[in-house]
Structures
1.
Amino acid sequence: MKKLSEERSERILKKHGIPFAKHVLTKSPEEAAEAGRKLGYPVVMKVSSKDVLHKTETGGVMTDIRDADEAIKAFRKIKASVKRKVPKARIDGILVQHMFSGREVIIGAKRDPQFGPVLMFGLGGVFVEVMKDVSFRLIPITAKDATEMIREIKGYPVLKGVRGQRPVKFKALERCLVGVSRIMEQNGDIKEMDLNPVMINEDAATAVDVRILGS
C-alpha cells in the first residue's frame, strides 16, 4: 500500500463534503514564517511526505506556533527530526496550518478481508489510544447510522458538553462520517484512511490531518 499525497487526499475529502483545515505548503523557514502571518498565528506545522505514515512518531508535528521566530525554529526542528528518524524519506515541505479549537474525534475506515469496508468513530487522544472507546459500522452507512455511532461511545457526554460547554455541531460530524463512508464505497483502490484528528466545536467539524493508503 502507498500513502496518497496531501494534495490528492485533500481533493478527495472536499469532493465528498469533508472540510479540511486551510494550509500552505512551505519550502523554507522564511516561507513558513510568512505563511503563519497570512493564516494568522497560532498555527500547526507538520511534515509533508508520502514516506512518513505517522507524523507524530517521527517528530513531524508541532502545535501552537505563535510567531515568526517560533515558525522558523519549528521548520528546522521538524525537518531534522524526520530526517533522523526516517533517513530515506522524501520531504515535499512543511505544511503550515490554521490551528482549530474544539474537541478532537477520530474517523477511520479500512477494508476488512472478511467483512469488507468498515467505518470507525471515537473521541481522539487518550480516549481512542487507551480506553479504546470506539464504535464501528459496515459501509455504507446512512445519516441515522452516523447518529447512532456517535451516541454509542462512552465519551458521548463530552460532545454534548460538560461543565458549561456548548454541544458540538452534530450534523457536521454526521456529514463527515457519511462522507468517509462514501469515499470508501466509491474508491475501491483506497484500502485504509484516517482523519485524526477532526476538530469539532459548536460551529463546524474540520479535518486537520488525513492519511489515505491506496493500492
2.
Amino acid sequence: MITVTRARWWHIEGIASLERDLFPGDPWTPEQFWQELSLDTRHYLVALEADDVVGYGGLFALAPDGDIQTVAVRPDHQGGGVATRVVSDLLDEADRRGCRHVMLEVRSDNARAIALYERFGFETISSRRRYYPDGGDALIMRRASAGGVSKS
C-alpha cells in the first residue's frame, strides 16, 4: 500500500537516492532538499511503500502564484497512480495557500507526464528550447485555480 505524506528530514536520503537514479545528468543534492524542506514557501510530499520512497513532489507557493518544482516516481511504480496522488495533493495545498495559478516545466517528450498535467487542467503556454542538461526541451504549463478540475 502506498501512502502519501509530508516529506520530513528522515525522507531526504530516500528522495535523494531516487533523484540520482531518475535524473543522473543533474540531480538535486541532499543539501538542496534540506534547504527546500526548511522554507515556509515550500511543501514537499513523499510517497512511501512501507518505509521505501517510491515518489515525491514539491511545490513552491507564494500566493497568488505557485510552481510545482518536481514530481518523480520510481520506474516500477510509474503508471500506478502515485504521480496522480502527489500532484493532486500538491494542488490541494496550492489552493489552500491561496495560489490562483500554478505553473510547471515538463520535458516536451514526456507524454505520460503531459497527459497527467492536462487532466489536472494545465495548459501549455510556452516552451524552452534546450532547457534540460541533455539538450531536451521543456514545455511551460499553467493551471488556473481548481474549481471542479477532474482528478481522474
3.
Amino acid sequence: MAYLHRVLYGDTDQMQVVYYASYLRFFEGARNEWIRGHGLAYTEIEAAGVFLPVVEAFVRYHRPARYDDLLEIETDVSTTRVRLRFDYQVRRRGDDAVLTEGHTVHVSVDREGRLVRFPGWLTEKLAAHVRQGMPE
C-alpha cells in the first residue's frame, strides 16, 4: 500500500525542488495512512492512553522531487516491545527510481511520558503487518 502525495508549491524551495524537511511531513502522512489502512487511527491509539513520539528520524536524498510530481511513499514497519520503526521509500509515480528513503523510530509512552510496552490489543492489531525485530 503506497501513500500518494502531490508536491505542492509550498513543499518546495525557490528552485521548485522539494525542501529537505518536507519529506518528514510526507513520512508522517504515509505513517498515518499505514496505520489507518490496518484498521486503526492515531486518535484511537491516543484515546487509549498510548502515544508514539518520534525518537529518531533519518532521511537520505538520492534525486530531487519537484513541484507537481505525484509521489508514492512505500512504508515498511518493524517492531520490538517498545519501539516501532517505519521505513519509507519515495518514488515518482510510474518510476522505479528511489528519490528519497528514510525512517522514523517511535516509542510507546503513557500520558505522563513514561516508556511502556505496547499494549496487547495494539500488538495483536499490528502483528500480521510488521516484522519482529528492527534493522541494524
4.
Amino acid sequence: MPADDGPSPAGRWHPRTFALTALLFAAVAFAVHAPGLSNKVFNSDEAYLATQAQVLNRGGRLYHDTVDRKPPVVPYLYAATFRLTGSDDLLPVRVLAVIADVATALLLAGEARRRFGNERAGLVAGLLFLGATAAYFAQDTQAANFEVFMLPSMVAAFVLAVRDRPLGAGVALAVSTLTKQTAATTLLPLAWLGWRHRHGDRTRLTTGWTLLAAGFVVPVVVAALAFGWHDFVHWVFTSNEGYLDANGVVGYVLHRGLVQTLWFLLANLAVVVLCVLAARRWRDDADLWLWVLAGAVAVASGLRFFGHYYLQLLPPLSLLATRPLLRAPARALAAVAVAVAVPIGYLAVPAYRRDDSPTQRAGRALAAYARAHTRPGASILVWGHLPEVYWRSDRRPATRFETTGFLTGLSGGRPPSRVGMQYAAPEAWDDFDADLRAHPPALIFDLSPADIRNAKYFPPEKFPRFGDYLSRDYHRIATVDGVAVYAPRT
C-alpha cells in the first residue's frame, strides 16, 4: 500500500492490542538492553553528560558554565533525571533510554500497520527495530546517548509527514534536532512527502512547505533566544568547523568509515538482506529510501563514523525490512529472529562482564583522591579526556570544558597525533584562561604521563598557555595510577 493512502483498518490500534504490544516491546527492549542496566560507564559521552547535569543542577548555565558541541535537550534530560531520582546514578537515565526505544518501536509499529495494512507488520517492524538497537558494540548501543533520545521525535516527524501534517512534522523534527543536530537531515524525506501529497496544487504545496519550515525553524530560534543567541549558535553550529575538518587524515577517516560500516552491516545482516529483498518494490517505499539516504548523510557528516551514529538508520531500515516478512511462514520468521539474536549475544552480552579497564580504574582512583583531598564544592581540573573524574568525585570542573579536547583538538574519529593549538575550538582558549582566573582549581590531574585516552600526545608543555600557568602556579604533589597530581603553590 502506498505510504500516502488513508489508514487501513489494521492501522487503527485497538486499546487492548496497543497495550499488549507496548508490554511486549517493553519486555524485549529491557531484555536486549539488560547489560546496560547498571551504573557502569559504557561511553565517555555519558560521563560528560552526567558532569554537565551536575553543573546544571548546581545552577550553572548551558553554553556558559558547561559547554559541548551539542543541542540542549539531552543535558537537561540527564539533569532532570538526577534531580527527580535524587541520585547521579546512570541507571535511571538508561531506563529512560530504553523507554525511548519502546516509544520509537511503537511509532514504527503504527506506521507499519497503516502502510502495509497488516497487523503482523506492526509487530515485525517494532521487534526488528528493538533487536537492531542492541546488535552492535555495547559502548554504542547500551549507553544513554544522544541518538537514542533523538529517535522518538524524529520518527514522529516522519509519521506526521506521511499523514500530511506538515506543521506537526516540523515541530517534531525541531525537537529531534535540538536533541542531536543530524536529525535535521530528515527534512529531505519530509519535504518530498509534502510534495507528493500536494504537488497537484501549487498553492497547497507552498503552504505545506511553509508550515513544515515554520514548525522546524521557530522552536530552534526560540531555543537560541532562550540560551543566548551567540552562545547557542556558536556551540551548536559554528564551532563545529574545526571538528568537521578532515584535511591530512582522509585515508584514516576512510578506513575508519569502511570498518565501522562493515561492522554495522554484519551486525544487522538480517535487516540488510531483507531491505535488499524489499528493493524490488522501491517505488512503493520511495519515502523510506529517501529517509535511509538522509540517515546515511547524517552518519557520514563530520566523517567520524562512531557506532552510535548508525542508530539513525534503524527506523527506515526496520520498516523496509518488514515488507518481505508480511506473508512469510513461521520458519522464515524464526530464522530472522535467530539472525537478529546472534549478533546481540556476541556483541552485547559480553557487556555483562565487570568493566575493570585501566581507564576506568584510573577514573575511580582519581575521583577518590579528589574527594579525599578537597572539600565539597571545590573545583578541580583534569588535563585530558576523563570526565568520569568530575562525575564520580562530585567536584565542579574548574572550567566550562569537561575535557580538554576543545583546547588540544584531540577527539574521536581522528588520529590521536592530530593535536595542536590550530585545532582548538574557536574562542576556547580565551574562555579557558578566564575560567582558570575565576575558579583556580584545588587540584589538577595531568593524564599525559599515564597516557590515558592518548594523553601522551598533548602534554601541558606542548600548549604553553596552560603549561606556563601550571609550572608557575602549581607544584606536583602526588602520582595516582601514573597520573600527575598538582596543587597550588600557595
